[in-house]
Amino acid sequence: MKKLFLFSLLFLLSINLIIPTISSGSPASKVIKWRMQTLWDPGTPEFHLQERFVSRVKELTGGRLEITLFPPGGLVPSTEKFDAVGKGVFEMMNSYAGYWMGKVPEIAFTASVPCGFTDAWQYEVWFWEMGGIKLERETWGKHNIYYIAPTIYEQEPMHSKVPIRSLADMKGKKGRFVGMAAPVMAKLGVGVVSLPTADVYPSLDKGIIDFADRGGLAANWAVGIQGVTKYIILPGFHQPTSVIFYAANVAAWKGLPEDIKAILEAACREASSILFTHIHAENIKALDKFKKHGIEVIYLPESEVLKAREIAMTVWEEYGAKSPMAKKVLESQKEYMKLLGIIK
Questions:
Q1: Exposed, middle or buried: residue 85 (CB in 10 Å: 0-12, 13-18, 19+)?
Q2: 32 touches 260 (CB < 8 A)
Q3: Are 126 and 332 in contact (CB under 8 A)?
Q4: Is 119 buried (19+), middle (13-18) or exposed (0-12) by CB count in 10 A?
């Protein structure tokens, strides 16, 4: 009886200790509220995936982390997210690193490598198994940003108002390209115009540009790009794989409980898998829709793609020479691409 009494007493004492902890707004139960601006337009499949992502984070954290999603320009202009997150204007962004390669040249290699990695899984392996994520976090950390995880998907096509059947056909045309694709296309004789994703449709419609990279086929169909172009150019050698990423303000990240940090990284990596499989499936359907709409799909010969790679590799080296870290990232990627047989 004495042992039973002592056990009961200890049990009651533990309950009295636990209940106030749970009900008093302790760090374990406090709701943390973040804001995140994405690059995807509302109504597109990718924007819906971001809605799914923030819902998933809330679910996995038991409601302890709530992320409010904002569309492009919802908090700041798209090109200003880098500085805004670094300064703590808001906590998190989902974006494309190529917008800021002029500020930080090494991130050009972790947005998309023109004529580089040919499949999303190759990029994924480089990030998580070949040291890429460590290099990326070191780079962004210098700008007060914690790089959480990449989300990687397949090639982006070119949508054109005019037929392009060879590299020579691109000369003298005006095209929208971002990231390292921009200088590559400029070397091919294209008059490059850098525009945020949301500005591509109206620029094609007004004739400001002749052709453009904008996003995946499904996303482009969703915004009606078939109404302002007549051709799709494949393969998307300028951006054979694409990396969108999740990143947070360093102070905001450090302020998270350790379990929520782990959950957020896991949710980002889950989002990468979902983004890839969903976009792949939707792009196949979208390509069929484009064809039925009367859009001509032009496939460039492999010989033209190989010519483009020769030019692209000169741009790789130019950007690799811009900083010690850029050289380090490039050499790491080239070493892996040699193993894959992409380059010699």
A1: buried
A2: yes
A3: yes
A4: middle
SS3 154: strand
Domain boundaries, the chain: 31-154+241-282, 158-238+298-340
Strands 145-154, 92-96: parallel, antiparallel or unpaired by DSSP? unpaired
- Per-residue pLDDT, 35: 98
Maximum Cα interatomic distance, the chain, rounded to a whole number of Å: 94
Instruction: Give the predicted TM-score (pTM) of the model.
Output: 0.83
CA torsion, ordered 135, 104, 143, 154, to nearest 10 deg: -60
Q: How far apart are CA 272 and CA 244, in angstroms?
A: 9
pLDDT digits (tens, 9 = 90+) for 26-79: 445 689 999 999 998 898 888 999 999 999 999 999 999 999 999 999 999 998
For the domain made up of 31-154+241-282, give the CATH fold.
Answer: D-Maltodextrin-Binding Protein; domain 2 (3.40.190)
Provide CB contacts within 8 A for 94, sequence distance 6+: 36, 37, 38, 39, 40, 50, 53, 151, 244, 245, 246
CATH of domain 158-238+298-340: 3.40.190.170
> Would you say the CATH fold of 158-238+298-340 matches that of 31-154+241-282?
yes
| Residues 255-262, mean pLDDT to the nearest whole number | 98
Complete edge-to-edge strand list for the sheet that includes strand 158-160? 191-193, 174-176, 211-213, 158-160, 231-234, 296-299
The partner residues of 34 in beta bridges, in order of sequence, read 67
Q: How far apart are CA 100 and CA 97, in angstroms?
A: 6
Q: What is the CA radius of gyration of the chain?
A: 23
